[in-house]
């Protein structure tokens, strides 16, 4: 049990370290661990201590706890003004659609830029897609409106930045730091016109203070479990020595 506890604490520390490392990553969503019990045994009570009386079930005894899955928390991160005309923040639910090597992925990070070929791309260099699934070419003098439409310098519509929602966004699969992939459980992407804030980015939703507290808790629990194993080893050593002496 103590060894399993130490292993789970290591998982928690890894997640905390990753969250803290991305506290300044635009659009990053905090990861949390979900644990489950196994080796459960049903406990019974015999109030009268009579072996012929019927035993009464009183609950389960959990044998151990293991990591079940790592989930992303999709709470809104702080919206920060940058003044960059290509920075776009989603205020509320939803995702941008990007093309990574021919595959559609989804992100909350709207710190976009115009690449050398004039396309709108993410900070990682992946293409931002429009509502028709096409790459967005940004002409000179173009600008983005609050409803995600890209206009040229003559106020002619060029494209609309695609924004989507999911029925179960918490079931999306995380790819890297900022990208998500749809799964059977998350459902298909549903195109939705979402209000945007241009010249802003959504920052990470990680609470650095809370993560530091979580780190201290995990470290303390790890130390307690470690001492428990050490104490158990010492007691077993004394037991074996006593048996040897009796002989």
Short description:
This protein is of the alpha+beta class and 247 residues long. It has helices spanning 2-21, 208-246, and strands spanning 31-38, 41-45, 56-61, 64-72, 79-81, 88-90, 95-100, 103-107, 113-114, 120-121, 127-128, 143-144, 149-151, 157-160, 163-165, 173-175, 179-181, 190-191, 196-198, 200-202. Strands 7, 8, 11, 15, 16, 17 and 18 form a seven-stranded antiparallel beta sheet that branches. Strands 12-13-14 form a three-stranded antiparallel beta sheet, with no helix packed on it.
List the helices and strands and how they pair.
Blueprint: H1 2-21, E1 31-38, E2 41-45, E3 56-61, E4 64-72, E5 79-81, E6 88-90, E7 95-100, E8 103-107, E9 113-114, E10 120-121, E11 127-128, E12 143-144, E13 149-151, E14 157-160, E15 163-165, E16 173-175, E17 179-181, E18 190-191, E19 196-198, E20 200-202, H2 208-246
Antiparallel strand pairs: 1-4, 2-3, 5-20, 6-19, 7-8, 7-11, 7-15, 8-17, 9-10, 12-13, 13-14, 15-18, 16-17
Helix pairs in contact: 1-2
In words, what does this structure look like?
Helices cover 24% and strands 31% of the residues. The protein is built from 2 helices and 20 strands. It has helices at 2-21, 208-246, and strands spanning 31-38, 41-45, 56-61, 64-72, 79-81, 88-90, 95-100, 103-107, 113-114, 120-121, 127-128, 143-144, 149-151, 157-160, 163-165, 173-175, 179-181, 190-191, 196-198, 200-202. Strands 7, 8, 11, 15, 16, 17 and 18 form a 7-stranded antiparallel β-sheet that branches. Helix 1 (2-21) packs antiparallel against helix 2. The mean pLDDT is 85.
Features:
247 residues; alpha+beta; 24% helix
């Amino acid at each position: 049990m103590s060894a399993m506890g130490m292993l789970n604490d290591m998982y928690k520390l890894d997640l905390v370290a990753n969250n803290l490392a991305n506290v300044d990553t635009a659009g990053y969503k905090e990861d949390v661990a979900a644990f489950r019990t196994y080796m459960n045994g049903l406990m019974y009570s015999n109030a009268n201590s009579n072996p012929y009386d019927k035993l009464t079930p009183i609950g389960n005894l959990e044998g151990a706890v293991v990591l079940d899955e790592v989930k992303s928390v999709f709470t809104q991160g702080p919206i920060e003004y940058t003044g960059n005309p290509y920075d776009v923040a989603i205020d509320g639910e939803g995702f941008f659609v990007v093309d990574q090597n021919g595959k559609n992925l989804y992100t909350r990070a709207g710190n976009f830029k115009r690449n050398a070929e004039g396309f709108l791309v993410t900070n990682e260099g992946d293409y931002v897609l429009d509502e028709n699934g096409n790459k967005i070419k940004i002409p000179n003098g173009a600008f983005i409106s609050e409803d995600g439409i890209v206009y040229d310098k003559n106020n002619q519509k060029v494209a609309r930045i695609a924004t989507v929602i999911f029925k179960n966004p918490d079931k999306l699969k995380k790819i890297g730091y900022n990208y998500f992939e749809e799964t059977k459980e998350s459902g298909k992407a549903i195109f939705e016109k979402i209000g945007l804030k241009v010249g802003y980015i959504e920052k990470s939703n990680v609470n650095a203070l809370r993560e530091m507290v979580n780190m201290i808790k995990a470290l303390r629990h790890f130390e307690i479990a470690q001492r428990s194993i050490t104490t158990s080893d010492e007691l077993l050593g004394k037991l074996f020595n006593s048996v040897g002496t009796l002989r």
